């Protein structure tokens, strides 16, 4: 059979020889197509196998909980066998000011010191000068101390955290606080007052921290009497007492360290003021 086509101005004849239907040719075509399908299926199987292997080799997903949010184990308290970290607390008074029997408040500037042991931080010193190492404040667990008789949150300035080779950790902060205290004026103007500084562990540490007798001194700065802002009061002494206080939640007792700063009214200053007013 012949087909006639026209290209441009020229006549060309294109002869196409139509082949007759052959069954063996159809079989070959079907076989080729089946072979291609098998190859495609084999490739899909390989891909699925690789994906499964990768999934099995991948690490398990991180747990959604406190461990995932806080991966640093040093931020957990170093609990001993009895379940509470033994902590000592000390107070270094730098200045007292604005003692008011009217408002029953006073201003205190000083150093708040805490010590405890963390066996996880024990290290071998490299020499005689390697007596302690300084740590970042938030790099390890430390007791959170609260002065509960504060009229407002205390201001914290310089802080220090260091560990000694045996694992003894010391925390020091310089602070300024406006505190409340009960005044007893029955013997005015010959009265003495006990200005209290009451320290508790923070709420979420009340079950894991206990206060013990301190090896640290409670003291005032050498320049206290010279540069103190007290006008009508004289500083006498500072003492401390460790006890347990009732929990506001009623579940357990709370560790408490109470410092008592004794001051006496300055008679010369008080009598002078009274004399001036009378005149």
Protein model, in words:
The structure is a single chain. The chain has 279 residues and is an alpha+beta fold. It folds into two domains: 21-51; 78-278, Acetylcholine Binding Protein, Chain: A (Distorted Sandwich). Helices cover 20% and strands 39% of the residues. It contains four helices and 13 strands. The protein has helices at residues 23-57, 66-69, 224-227, 267-278, and strands at 2-7, 10-15, 85-100, 105-117, 133-134, 145-147, 155-163, 168-180, 192-201, 209-211, 219-220, 233-246, 253-265. The strands form three sheets. Strands 3, 4, 5, 7, 8, 10 and 11 form a seven-stranded mixed sheet that branches. Strands 6-9-13-12 form a four-stranded antiparallel sheet. A hairpin with a 6-residue loop joins strand 12 (233-246) and strand 13 (253-265). It is elongated and about 115 Å long. Mean pLDDT is 79; it is low at 1-19 and 63-67.
